[in-house]
Amino acid sequence: MGSNPWLQTSSLGTCLRPNRRNLLLGTTPGGYRFRVRVEQPFRGFLLAAFLGVGLGLLRGVALAEDIRFPADSGVVDVTKSPYFAHGDGKADDTESLQQALLDNGNANRIIYLPNGVYLVSAPLLWPGGTNEESRQRSTILQGQSRDGTVIRLMDYAAGFGPGGRGHPLLWMGTDPATHPRNAVRNLSIETGVGNPSASGISVMANHQGGIRDVTVRAGKKGEGIVGFDLSHSETIGPCFLKNVRAEGFEFGIRAENAVNSFTLENVELVGQGTAGIRNSGQTLNIRRLRSTNAVPAIQNTDPTGSVTLIDAVLQGLPSRRAFPAIVNRGSLYVRSLMAPGHTNAIESRIETSITVTAPYVEEFLSHDRMAMFMAMPSSLDLPIEETPELPWDPPAQWAGPVTQGGKSGDFADDSVAIQRAIDSGATTVYLPNGLWRVEKTIEIRGPVRRIIGCEARIVNGGLGSKPVFRVVDGDSPVVVIERIEIEAPKGPLVQNDSGRTLVLSSCHNAGFILNGKGSLFLEDISGALPASINGQKVWARQWNIEYEGPKIMNDGGTLWLFGFKTERPGTLITTSSGGRTELLGSLAVSNGAFKSSPMFVIRDASVSLVAGEVAFQGNPYNVVVRETRAGVTKILERGSGVDLGMQIRSGGVGLVLYSGHDGANSIPPPRPRRKLDDKIPLKP
Fold it and tell me: What is the pTM of this model?
């Protein structure tokens, strides 16, 4: 490489990657320069194949889905007594489905729809409650398969016609932020013909919950308002959307408001009328987005909005007007973007417009990167591993504690019964819906590879700080624990003492201890306890920690964290002893007391941060990063002379990229340019 392989561009925007082959020197309207890759045939082909064909294969997998539960699991089958839904695509099942929801609200119950077409004539509403703490929460709508279970709005349904206010087919609740564990899984939503003011799902889940393996389809081209509505309430999120697809509507996804963030992975958007995604102020973390549209794939319309986008293919279709793939007016971090068919990949319009015309963009920042030492001007770019998926065993092969003498809700110790189920030889062990008391740590051993809670709750019955489960050596290299809530957690859900890979998915109040060498994968996890990584590898997607004090300690490990939301004082992540941390998209809700500790601490380690904060109560973090290298400590403070890489956002700060890692292409830290509260436009 030459003496200056990196070009620092406008202080308001940068496109960064090493000066490799096939790089184009571009110029912004303001005369600033940047570098992007114009064509990268081999990697581009692989990415297109992975996202295009790969996401298509996800739909193929959905065709083979057969999500069924044992008869005693506590799942509510809507086709059985007392609901008797038809699912034949002819009879109106609105009353049956709505009554099943009303009867089982706030109970962690799975409302189960076997394969069939369930015709409805009105919105299906999540159940109310006696107060704000009990309404529209802990309710799960579950299909047998994504393509086999369909909820379809009748054609020309009353209230969904032209000029209507707009109604969703599924409405999951509204403010305040007291709706954990709401979810929709493994089904399709169709809004029918002649229903132009219909939407698909008004999403409501916070702390833990979301949408998985769901397709939302407009009945006719040009009809429908939004597929997945993340804008109808201020307190939606944090929540997780994975393997979702929106066909048609004006917007595939619409998001607003500054709290509480969303994480999306494996998203397909096809045939939208105005934009694939419109974001007005929310924090969106998106990976593996595939958009096929004649309109922009993403509109980030508000200065308070923040979008982190990685590994995306945004295919532009012919249209009367030329559209960029991404239009940005807020904070934007992009990595590994293909935008064939669009005139521009990115148009970032902040104070000075920056246009990126290349069809492949390795890395783009809407604002300057931040650093305090010599550092790479790019992200750490850690290898990403997909969350392991295991086959869904037929219910006849499951084992549970009921046949071993256990009983939910009787407050007797169920530890022995659960251990017997694990030792029965089954590969899947389930906890029927209800409350299970555990007084002795249960070992996961033998052939067991999946512990599924059926949305059950576990109460720590005197374990104290000891774990509920302990993973030891066994037959399966992967162990999955999913769909469990810990009541009033005193200790962790699980301790991994083995070399096996552990997956925690859709668990509420789920702490963990890592003693062995096995890797950890987290998906849609909330926790009320701190987490320590001691040399292990962790890949986390949508992790919510609301703990007062230090939240994550990475001591010599590798942490890839995509979508992180926190509350209450305390350092978010401390990385030390040669550890590596890559944070891609986070939101710190700075409520609670004065923040005496830094937001992030780095001690002789490698870190890159794409992070944000909101502080509506006026008590943000004063020290954003404290970094120590070879005995020298530097502090990045709020209100100090900094460039636009750290900007004010809803009372907090935002880091489009902080680079705390060194390398062969390292450059000096950016020169201080202005104070955060100075509104005078920056001049080069």
Answer: 0.91
